[in-house]
Structure formats: structure tokens, C-alpha cells
UniProtKB/TrEMBL annotation, chains A, B:
SUPFAM superfamilies the record matches: Bacterial exopeptidase dimerisation domain, Zn-dependent exopeptidases
NCBIfam families: hydantase
Gene3D superfamilies: 3.30.70.360, Zn peptidases
GO molecular function, one term: hydrolase activity, acting on carbon-nitrogen (but not peptide) bonds, in linear amidines
Cofactor dependence: Mn(2+)
Subunit description: Homodimer.
Protein name: Peptidase M20 dimerisation domain-containing protein
Keyword Hydrolase among UniProt keywords: yes
Keywords: Hydrolase, Manganese, Metal-binding, Purine metabolism
Keyword Manganese set for record: yes
BP GO annotations: purine nucleobase metabolic process
Gene source species: Linum tenue
Domain of life of the native organism: Eukaryota
Length: 372, 372
């Protein structure tokens, strides 16, 4: 298995495309794919199933003697996880034409060691002499359909004994970076009334995020403080700086944005109450949700029925490269069950049989869409 | 300036002693000193003033033609700050005869990179072939007095326009390490009711520390969460582990221990409420306060009067090597003003004139105690 037999190209940021030409190569192609990068201390199925599954789906179709009408493409998206540069879905976001991101990558994006995105890309053999990242953008008519196979990253399919989830919408994510600054000082000598502890401001804001999410009253609203860092980080030093990164998501963009507004109001109020400075409250991204294409959803449903695989329509609460591909192509996603819904931790697992079922639905749906 | 002219010895953990023999070398000596290590991102006066000041005090006495009766010693204590091994006042605590520490250093103490204390000490040229750290312990009758010159690390002397603070007691410190563990998971896919977020448990406990300290009703009670770490530390991952390090101090040991008990009760209650595990609640040290020796206090007061330096009796809210030296020797401490009371941050500063005043009082007090 591999990309052999496909014509392969890489773009300037490391997205990889493997193409199987159809007998009408002038028609917009049908694409499928996902990512293979991971967050620290995570599992090995998130993303990878959709890449290896896509390659296997094309191999199965080849072995069966199928001849595509529209070309079929496998895409390996670069940097879906925000691990290094703090930007999620970097590859697909850029493919979808984000001018803001193209500018940021060229000028301001650095990793935790202050290495610029441009230097890192060049070191890895990309962005050779290219100053304009807009050549990575894909045109809206480039694909007639984009499909992504992925583990559910939630417990529903396993709990309900279903093989296939057909995604009708992807929840809208937003990321916020917050910095507080106080005077710090010695943990023994500075008395409590004289303190403005940036760490306690961060602790209060983390709890406020949870409160505002729960106050929304909606099960579909989530909010997480995954990063909370204190400076200088010594047991006998009052934190003089704190840094939080907040993730909020919803299938309702307006409701999510109201939660963000409340988080902002809390950050301002906490800073005032504790006499710390709110030196940054930056909404890093605030993406709209994506709705799956109706005809692709129907094709996936029909295929699941033909294969006698129990399935249901569902929402993706995690977001994916599909969220951004939906901006330039009709989009659909397939979920398969995963152990207890675990994801982003080492216990993440999907059974071979479930992966095989997902690949079957993917392959047959790609075949149908190719002939469409 | 330096240790030249003194007979110098080092012990097995890197405490350094410079001795000026008196004309009655068989009498217990008078010692003075402090530390030269620092926490990250800190200042350059904490500790250093008491080491360079001690050396200068002995030099001044030599230049003046003074002949000590009791020998005078300068001590440079190793690892006063807990930076590397998480143990504060490592050197003086061991000199004062802590068997618990001697055992821990030999068997269980490691730094953040899992390097053992023994390996680090040997790499630095200490603990050569020695298996028993009890040879570092000093006898109770070894010194007739121990004095430490130090910046106040608080705002009182500067605010009141005083040159010298004479310490009557050192507040009792305690350090606690806490770990929470939950299931972690994906920040999008795991819905709020299904979460047990170790990071939010840590945030709640940090605020509980502040609450219990304030509830004590005493200005002398302080509590600080200087370290709060989340694992895995990714924006799109619910924290599965959190680690806090808490510092509490008081001049009243009983009141401080009541605060620790309340913090423990909160940790248990928060773990239960949030369905996380409290995998560690460890009181790393819980030291009693130290009371200065009355005759040393009187000698410092008399000297300050003779030098026409405005002074006051005060409490040390920060703790020092003196806290542990008080276990084996009559103890006294001298404070000098520092800029705005700042300490443990780069803005820490003491004026040359204030340092000179402190050295004068130290030198004359050492001379008196030497002749005593």
C-alpha cells in the first residue's frame, strides 16, 4: 500500500496529493483524505484512519477493475493539529484560500522556540524561494466532492452498536489566547492584600469558561482550557504572568460567539477585580460551522444500506480538515466507532473490522461520486 | 575581596565555610552567611548581599586591626532556593541535622530531568565516594551565634525610612505538592457532562488556597500557588492531569497547619465533585517557625544605636537558611531596605548605601559576639 500508482504532487506548505486520473480528466475530481500529525501524548487513529483508509479505498477500486470517470485524489493535509504553530488545520485552511493565514504564515507565525513558519518549512524542504502562499489556494470548482473518513472521537456509535456515522454538520470552533500580568513577588514577603496574582486570575477565568458554557443550557456547547501556564513557575514566587488557551465549539455559531463574548467580559472583570493587566485577549480563529452536502450525505446513506451496515446521521463535535474543504467543495464525512469515544490520548483505538467497514463505504461512495 | 585569608573547607553537598581563627580557637565560633543561588527570572540581591556582606564584614574587621576571640566563619549555603530539587534550604537543612533529608537525598531526590541528587552532586565534584550524608550535620554547640544579613524582600523598611530591620522571628513555611487525574479527551467531542477535567480541579484548588488563607483573618498568613501545570497541555485536549505546588507560611504554626488541613479538605472535596482522582497530596516540608536569640537581638539593636542608624524589630515573612541554623545555634537576622519590597523578580534592588549600613551593623555585631 502507498501512493504508488498515483501521480503525486506536494504544495509549498507540505500538503500531498495523489491522483488517479479518470477517463474524463477534465472534470472536477473527487477527493478524499485526512491528516497524519498528532498532538503530544495522543493516539494513532485520529486522522491516520482517513489517510490510510483513503489509499486503501483507491487500491480496492483498482483491484476490482473499477475505472473512474472523474479523477480520484487522496490528500494528506499538513498540520491539522495546532501542536507546533498554534494554528489548527493549517494545510486545509490554506487550501481553502485563507488570505489572513497566508499573510500570517509569511510574516508573524512562530513556534514555541521562536522559529518562524517560513524557516521551518524551508528546513523541511518546502517554500523553496516562494514568497507568495496564494499559489497553495485551490479554486472553488477544483473538486466536485470531498470526503473524509475519521474515527468518531465520541462514544455514540459504539454505545448504539452502529458501524457508520454520516456527518451532517461540523461544530464551529474558536480559539482564544489570554495573557494576564501582575507584579509577582516573593511568596512569603508579599502579604495577601498587596498581591495581584496573575495565576489566580487565570484560575478564575478557567472556571468562568466552564460556567458560561454550562449557562448556555445547550449540550452542544463546549469550552476547554487545555493550556494554562504560569511565570516564573516557582513554588516560592507569586505568578507575575499567566497564559491560557481556550477552545470553544458549538453547532450554533451565534450561541458560541455569545459564550466568547461572556468569556471576554469575565476576563476584563477578573483583571479589574484582581488589579492585573489583561495584556492579551486574542481570538485566534473563529470559524463558521460547515454543513455537509445533501447529495453526498445521500450517497453515503445509500451505500451503507447496500452494505447492510447499521448507520445514523450525526453531528461532528470535533472539527476536521473537512470544515475548511467545505468552503471550496461539496463536503461529506464518514465516522466509524472508536473505543469508549476516547481520542487525543494514548487509549484511542478503532477495531480493524470497523476500519474495514468505513473503507468499504468510502470506496463505494467515491466510485459513485466519480461516475456522477 | 574573596575568601582569601580564610581557611576554606567544603562539605559533601557543597556548603562552603571560610574561617578566620580567633585567639581562642577552641571556643564555639560565630558564623554568618547566606546563599548565592536564585530562582528563575529573579533578582541578584536575595542571598548574595548576605554572602558578599559577610566577606566584606570580615575584611573590614581585619583592616581595622580587630582580633577575634572566638573564630569567625563565613558560610555559603548550597541550594537555598528549591529550584532544581524542589527542596528549599537544602544546605542549611542538612547542616541542622535533618536525617529525613539525608535519606531522601541519597535515595529518592531527583530533578525535573530525573537526574538524582547524588549524580548531580558527584558530577559537580561533591559526595566523592561518601555514602553517609550525616557527616554534613553540625553539632549543636558548633557555633555560639549565627547571623544572616539579607534584603527585607518586603516594603516596610523603605516605606518607613528605616535603615535596619532586626528580625525577632521567621515565619513558618510549608510546601505541598498536589496531583489530580481525570480521563482527559478531545476538547470538541467530549460533552461537558461527561468530563472530569483535571485542569479545572487545579483551578478550583488554587482559588481555595487563597480563600482559606484569607478566611484565617490574619495578615500574617499567606498562601501561594506558584506552580500549576496541565497535561498534555494542548489547546484541543481536556487536561487529564494537573500538578500544583503550594507554599503556605505564617508566624503562627498552628494557624498555618489549620490552613493546610483546610486545603487538604478542599482538594478531597473538589476531586469528589469533579470525579477526578487526587493522586497526590504531599506535604513536602512543614517547618516550625524560628525565634531569634534575645542576646543577639540586643547586640544588633545596640550596634544600630551606636551607628545612629534608624531601625526596628520585625518579623521575617520570607524564610532563610537562618530558620534551619536556629535549630543548632542561637540565631539573629539583619534586614536592609529593598526597592518597593520587590524580590524574586528582576526589579529586585538594594542601594549601595543600604548595603553598606547593613555590613557595618553586621561587622560590629560579629566583633561583639566574637569577644563574648
Amino acid at each position: 500500500m502507498g501512493l504508488s500508482g498515483l501521480s503525486v504532487r506536494e504544495d509549498a506548505v507540505g500538503n500531498i496529493f495523489g491522483r488517479w486520473d479518470g477517463y474524463k480528466p477534465g472534470l472536477p475530481a473527487v477527493a478524499t483524505g485526512s491528516h497524519i500529525d498528532a498532538i503530544p501524548y495522543s493516539g494513532k487513529y485520529d486522522g491516520v484512519v482517513g489517510v490510510l483508509g483513503a489509499i486503501e479505498a483507491l487500491n480496492v477500486l483498482k483491484r476490482s477493475g473499477f475505472r473512474p470517470k472523474r479523477s480520484l485524489e487522496v490528500i494528506l493535509f499538513t498540520s491539522e493539529e495546532p501542536t507546533r504553530f498554534g494554528i489548527s488545520c493549517l494545510g486545509s485552511r490554506l487550501l481553502a484560500g485563507s488570505k489572513v493565514l497566508a499573510e500570517a504564515l509569511k510574516k508573524t507565525t512562530v513556534d514555541g522556540q521562536n522559529i518562524s513558519f517560513v524557516d521551518a518549512a524551508r528546513y523541511a524542504g518546502y517554500m523553496k524561494g516562494e514568497d507568495d502562499l496564494s499559489n497553495v489556494f485551490l479554486n472553488s470548482g477544483n473538486y466536485s466532492a470531498f470526503l473524509e473518513l475519521h474515527i468518531e472521537q465520541g462514544p455514540i456509535l459504539e454505545a448504539e452498536g452502529l458501524s457508520i456515522g454520516i456527518v451532517t454538520a461540523i461544530a464551529a470552533p474558536a480559539s482564544i489566547k489570554v495573557d494576564f500580568e501582575g507584579n509577582g513577588g516573593h511568596a512569603g514577603a508579599a502579604l495577601m492584600p498587596n498581591r495581584n496574582d496573575a495565576g489566580l486570575a487565570a484560575a478564575e477565568l478557567a472556571l468562568a469558561v466552564e460556567k458560561h458554557v454550562l449557562d448556555s443550557g445547550s449540550i452542544d456547547t463546549v469550552g476547554t482550557v487545555g493550556i494554562l501556564e504560569l511565570h516564573p513557575g516557582a513554588i516560592n514566587s507569586i505568578p507575575s504572568k499567566s497564559h491560557l488557551e481556550i477552545d470553544t465549539r458549538d453547532i450554533d455559531e451565534k450561541r458560541r460567539n455569545e459564550v466568547i463574548e461572556k468569556i471576554h467580559q469575565s476576563a476584563v472583570a477578573i483583571a479589574k477585580k484582581r488589579s492585573v493587566s489583561l495584556t492579551e485577549f486574542r481570538i485566534v480563529n473563529q470559524d463558521p460551522p460547515a454543513i455537509s452536502d445533501k447529495s453526498i450525505v445521500k450517497a453515503m446513506e445509500d451505500t451503507s444500506k447496500e452494505l447492510n451496515l447499521p448507520h445514523k446521521l450525526m453531528i461532528s463535535r470535533a472539527y476536521h480538515d473537512s470544515l475548511f474543504m467545505a468552503r471550496i467543495s461539496p463536503m461529506g464525512m464518514l465516522f466509524i466507532p472508536c473505543f469508549k469515544g476516547y481520542s487525543h490520548k494514548p487509549e484511542e483505538y478503532a477495531a480493524s473490522q470497523d476500519i474495514a467497514n468505513g473503507v468499504k463505504v468510502l470506496a463505494l461512495t467515491l466510485a459513485k461520486l466519480s461516475l456522477d
